[in-house]
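#dry-run=false #mode=assembly
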Amino acid sequence: MIKAILIFNNHGKPRLSKFYEHYSEDTEQQIIRETFHLVSKRDENVCNFLEGGILIGGSDNKLIYRHYATLYFVFCVDSSESELGILDLIQVFVETLDKCFENVCELDLIFHVDKVHNILGEMVMGGMVLETNMNEIITQVDSQNKMEKSEAGIAGAPARAVSAVKNMNLPEMPKNINIGDISIKVPNMPSFK
Amino acid sequence: MALKIVKGSIDRMFDKNLQDLVRGIRNHKEDEAKYISICIDEIKSELKQDNIAVKANAVCKLTYLQMLGYDVSWAAFNIVEVMSSSKFTFKRIGYLAASQCFHEGTDVIMLTTNQIRKDLSSPNQYDTGVALTGLSCFVTPDLARDLANDIMTLMSHTKPYIRKKAVLIMYKVFLKYPESLRPAFPRLKEKLEDPDPGVQSAAVNVICELARRNPKNYLSLAPLFFKLMTSSTNNWVLIKIIKLFGALTPLEPRLGKKLIEPLTNLIHSTSAMSLLYECVNTVIAVLISLSSGMPNHSASIQLCVQKLRILIEDSDQNLKYLGLLAMSKILKTHPKSVQSHKDLILQCLDDKDESIRLRALDLLYGMVSKKNLMEIVKKLMLHVDKAEGTTYRDELLTKIIDICSQSNYQYITNFEWYISILVELTRLEGTRHGHLIASQMLDVAIRVKAIRGFAVAQMATLLDNAHLLTGNTQRNGICEVLYAAAWICGEFSEHLEDPKQTLEAMLRPKVATLPGHIQAVYVQNAAKLFATVLRSQESAPEAAQETSQLMIERLPLFVQSANLEVQERASCILQLVKYIQKLQQKDVEVAEEVTALFAGELNPVAPKAQKKVPIPEGLDLDAWINEPPSESESEDEKPKAVFAREEPKHTRSRHTEVDEKELAKRREARKQEQANNPFYIKASPSSQKVYQDAPGVEHIPVVQIDLSVPLKVPGLPLSDQYVKMEEERRQKDKDDKKKKEKKRKREKRGRGRQVDSGPESEEDITPAQQVDIMTEEMPENALPSDDDDKDPNDPHKALDIDLDKPLADSEQLPTRTHRSAEVLKSPGGDGDGETITPEPKKKTRKDKKEKKKVKDKERTRSAEDKKNKKKHKHDPEEEEAKIEEAITLVNAEEAQPTAAADLDFWLTTDAAPSSAQEAVAATIPEVPIEAEPSEVKEVEPEEMKSKHKKKKPKKEKEEMEREKKKKKKRHHHHRSERAETESVQNGTMEEEEEEEEPLPPMSNYGLLAENDYIKMVYDIQGNLQDGSQVVVSIIFQNKTSSVLKSMEFNVLDSLNSKLERPEGASPHDALSVPFQLPPEVSNEARFVFAVQSIVMPQKLKGTLTFIVKTDDSSTHEKLDFKLHFTCTSYLITTPCYSDAYAKLLESGDLKSSSLKLEGVTMPFHHSLARICFHHHFSVVERVDSCASMYSRSIQGHHVCLLVKTADETVSIDAKCDELMLLENVLDEIKQTFSQS
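#status=ok
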């Protein structure tokens, strides 16, 4: 089981948090902070596994994380998950985001956390891995987005126009925080079907 | 209307959307909290509007704020509103918000039940999908109970996208509503073989998760998983299955034996590291479960260790880490194979990654032996010196101690060395583990008698140099060792060389700076030392008096201590010494008596000893000692109190008077006492005077030794020296031995034999001291068991449910009445056949619910009644067979042991085929006797005549199976449309027979068993009347010239198939065959079996016992057999018209499979006849070299075949609503053909 999926940036700002067990908002924030402290003090070239924090889990749990440019992707899992499998899953997740957002960067995650949730929902459900095939995930996400667009129809147009105008004069919009090294390959891991 | 919409959307333009909110927060970095509170106010007003789009937008923003840590539970109702929007866009927003912030405590959740149910049955698959995803996060016991049935229906949805989600969410449903597990399980099991890999993977996922918590309930699934493991190519699925097997093997070692080979193959073949790693892990688990007496698996261990070495040597830190992790598992059972990689692991200690270093340390723990302990510890000590972070250094320290002390100091040959290691460890600055070192010192000194002399000497030195340990700052951690040192010196003071000096060291004023509990030990042990010193000075009374004086001078320092314990002990001992001094002045011999105070040995007591004291007989700890105060008593007392109210008041006042008087008296007395007591600290100046007389702390010169190289305790031998000494000693030992051996050799050479002296083994290393390690004391009659209870709050405990038991009627999931529940079609249920009729009534929810319950009950009852009626109805056919009394309902629980028997059968593999199995040979060549695919296919037709064919060992068979599957895939021609017809020919085969070649004679009777007396052949036919029964007709043939009588027929029921026995008979009773067999006569008897699932072939073991009666004697004989229920035997020849057939194929509910038979030389109509006859099919129509055939199972599955032939190849495309059944039938057809 996956207990939680957290994405935060190099400063510990949460970009996505998905807990598959209930915690109060305060505890959730504490867990994010604790996890950030554990993960951020590790060097780049050390292993990606960490025996769990105190707040989430206990002895059976592990933190498995990857660091891409400005973002940490952390999965908190118990012993029924394969460590290398989860690493691969993170890779699939990030690659899927990259496909869905076309060159994903931190800003995409900041402004479209709902979309990220929707993508994640096609991969992991209730803490269990639902789908690992990237094409399948993208197909499902796309057709849902299409449905959304068709529902919006004409009524949605003005809102979209305004949103576009709002985005036009955005000084911080340049995609300079690109996750450039997104193509880090998991060593010797043929992608799962 | 349109205008209104446009107007609404224009209004909305200026609402803040999620992006605006995020942007706003980023622009208000200084006053973020304030900005957000403004936003929340806005959101609140947005939520009050009627426009659902505005609400959805607000909820979307709330979801974001929730991530930032804001409580948004106040908007729960609005979230429900948005969830119930008809638009997917908003629905998705609502469900996302719900999944993020709803939980079991959210009260509005109960409002969602109907909405979710509606969404689940929505025609739009994404509505359903979104609802499932959301529900998986916030499902509550109530929701689980109410929706379990709907979700179960979805498990058979046509869209794999929904199926996989429904399957996954079932796990959450099980957790919240454990009662649903058993009814849902058969369907879940079916999904393991779903054609869609995603659904399959989800099912594997769920079952693995369930099995991980309660593995024993899932052992019976092992064969199925085994099949999946050897056939699946999906790495995710493989990993899950392999992990599951890792959990199952400890419960069933035979499973492990079966697994080793396929796993080894995977290890060799896979390129995916993740899979390789999990395989290695499971192989290790298998090896652990087999650890006793399986020497021939050393190759597997070697392979694992090799592969792990590759992982550890990899530059990828992740692989390195995992490699070490797995290595530590091997270590537990096969330490020797790991020990050869010591170099590698020691290398890992230098790794820059702390987690890797820690893993390597774990490994070292298990790698030590008597031989290398000193060397390894020496290495570790070097690391201790080098280590930077205190945490890692502390970790090293604990590891060193763990390594040395493991299994009762098993590997320590020289305790002097160990003591000196401990002493060296005291040099560690800032460690938290002083108490650990201390307890080790105590333990060794107490339990290893031989070392006491040395230990005491070392401890005395430590005490002497105590200032080094306590010297600078508050390094309180390490001073704990002084506690041990003081106690050891005191307790074993007889070993001290100069007790007086140690006594002085212990009474130094500096000691007063130590923590209280250590001071207390100091004081107490000073007394012990005092006793020893007195004894040694018996002959010199002056010296003895001096010692007493020393005590009297120094002890007051401790009497002043703020610590009560110290104060009490000190004042006690001070008084004692003063008394002794008095006696000494009177020239009384006191040494003896003082020593007697501390006589006797203190033995170590096991930590659990207290808990293990058995409760004496007749003692009930829960019983009241006195009569419990009855409740009525207190009520009775009240009125009494009313009458005697005045009385107690008086006494009370009198009492207080007395008290006051007495208090005053006591106060006075205490003052008096305090004044007389010189040790009582008083505020008055007079008391200070008293102390000025005594030698104060200030008077003692404190010598601070300033060391440039701190903490090298002088005078202590270094552990390194011991290593050298030890080596020398061992060398010497060896030399001695060699000399002896040489001598021996010389002697032996005379006889012409030479004996090689092997490498030095563990046992050859003799300990330096003769060590007697005392065991810890335990109370008499202590109970040895360790009872570690499971966590009672574990939600998985509730899921510890036996899944092999057949379902009872009462276990069906609550079904909603207004939807037809064709859900429970699972082959498990007793009430299967009964579909619940739709209930169109509409009423208020509440009483509908109640009504439903009642109705459910009624329905099940009536179903039962019907069933019973049916069973008791005397069927003419059955009557003919004279077994009507054989019908009974077999109690599920009593049949349980046979589930294990099924698994047993699967597990006993390489065992030589049993006699029964051997007997399953073809006397009548055409008879299909084996349902399971076997090697028969490969057998040449000429060989067919050979009477006894042995089954190949299972292993080969499995390989075959795999091969076959591959072939099957290659030849898979998918044909779905077969509706076009040219000529319609209805009816069965017989009609066509005349025009073509005559058919060879055929019989469906297969040999059941045979011995010298009797031969049994059998055939199995489905019972048309009852979908859950098959009739087995057995022909008994007497081969002897004597009469066979009292034949009794019995089978070992499995969960799936049971022999119907007369009512009242136990499930193990035998049925008597209703006839005797005169010489050379055969007769037929029929037996009815109840079956539940018909999708798999089954084998039942059984025995026939009978008496052979000759003229002069009669002997008891028995014959074992194995009844083989092929899937074919569950099919019933049913005619079908071509239009109905076409409709059936078009319905799209059927799953397809295909089969290709090569080298079929017989005419086509023979092939068809064969299928018709042996497999109970009927021909729907036939056009030239193509024919369509149909059959129906006793449970109503449709089986359709399209048979085509072209140059000696017969290809069969088949469709059926049950894929597994179809596959098995095809396999059986294949066998029929291979046998001809």
